[in-house]
Amino acid sequence: MRQLLQNAFGKLTRLKPLDSFSLAAAKATHLPLDIPIEEERKQDYDSRHYYPVRLGEILHDKYQVVVKVGFGAGSTVWLARNLQRFNFKERYAILKVSTSHADCAPEEAHQELRLSRQIASAKPAHPGLEYIRLVQGSFTISGPARPHLCLVYVPMREPLWLLQRRTTDGRYSFGLLAYTTKFLLTGLSYLHNECSIIHTGGSFTNVLVGLEKTLSLDDIVADEINSPSPRKMLPDRTIYLSRNDFGHPKSTPGRPKITDFDTAVQMTGSQKTFSHPIQPNCYRAPEVILGAPWSYPVDIWNLGAMLWDLLEGKALFDGSDSNRNGEYSSHAHLAQVIDLLGPPPKELLARGAKAGLHFNSGGEFMARCNVRPRKLVDTVSTIGGAEKEDFLRFASRMLEWLPERRATALELLDDPWMRSLPG
């Protein structure tokens, strides 16, 4: 049996842990203890809820933590060496170590794991699965107070916003935009049609691009050992600055993948809509702002609004409210949508529990912000001619007031602009 397994999967290898981290720590810059950094700057931060990960530590008797690559309100994220693997397995993994807070973070991590398993098994041959980042495994570690769920992922390069920042003018080329859009729509079509899942939170931060073939994670680890990340040394933990900038790609990065399903929802049984608040501010669909029932079309609006960030380097709707010192407000957001699309249909207002906050009984906008009519054509300056016509026709199908009038992901993939792409 052992020989059969070895023939099928290759040899199980046990790597020796790196022992350079204690020496590297002596060279690291120690940061002031009174200035919050990284996860400490998150609202409602409580150190008791975070597992005190240490560089060089071995988790689950398998993963040696080598670089901190990120953090959030509900987790810290680390690059780790896979010390126990078959030959065909990745040498490195990304570990998302969840907080142990009794409220939402562990629940969100368990949801991510549950949905990832369902996505992986729904229809494995579907081309959209290639554009979804799945959880590869999970384990639990004991923390000072409670257990912590750890999710394992394949390493990725960086989020879309960082790749975009590396371009000459902070904008995507039209060709790169077209392929990125096609890949993301292929992923969304799989989520919507095969998995009954609505992502609800698309943004620059949760679409990741893959590693290029020329990028060596060994070099990233060597950089950490030779030039250790600055850190704050506390009595019960060390907080490291994240090392998540892998430099300018030396070759073409891998394809994008949709990530972070901790706030995603899944249609079950007779439930066809939801009504709770979702989505990043500037990508929020009108029905969500108005408190109306929402479904799959929120993801289409979300992606449609994101296209302007990629192409123009700025948000189509930022919701900046001059009456609130430029801070976001849903009222200003609605005003900007009205600027471009005209007033919303009364049938949409009739569905919205919050419509009365913004519109009178006659359906007229109670403008507390300046409404300055604009044309969608005037919002695009980086392309012209047939390219501009193709893009605006395509994007207009995504940015409709009424959710039921928006094109689906499958319909958009059949758009002439998408069908014109080679491959």
TrEMBL record:
Gene Ontology BP annotations: regulation of mRNA processing; spliceosomal complex assembly
One GO molecular-function entry: ATP binding
InterPro entries named among the record's database cross-references: Kinase-like_dom_sf, Prot_kinase_dom, Protein_kinase_ATP_BS, SRPK
Reaction(s) the record says it catalyses: L-threonyl-[protein] + ATP = O-phospho-L-threonyl-[protein] + ADP + H(+); L-seryl-[protein] + ATP = O-phospho-L-seryl-[protein] + ADP + H(+)
Pfam families: Pkinase
Domain Protein kinase: residue ranges: 63-418
Domain of life of the native organism: Eukaryota
Keywords of this entry: ATP-binding, Kinase, Nucleotide-binding, Serine/threonine-protein kinase, Transferase
Entry EC no(s): 2.7.11.1
Residues binding ATP: K96
PANTHER family in UniProt: PROTEIN KINASE DOMAIN-CONTAINING PROTEIN-RELATED
UniProt-recorded name of the protein: non-specific serine/threonine protein kinase
Originating species: Hebeloma cylindrosporum
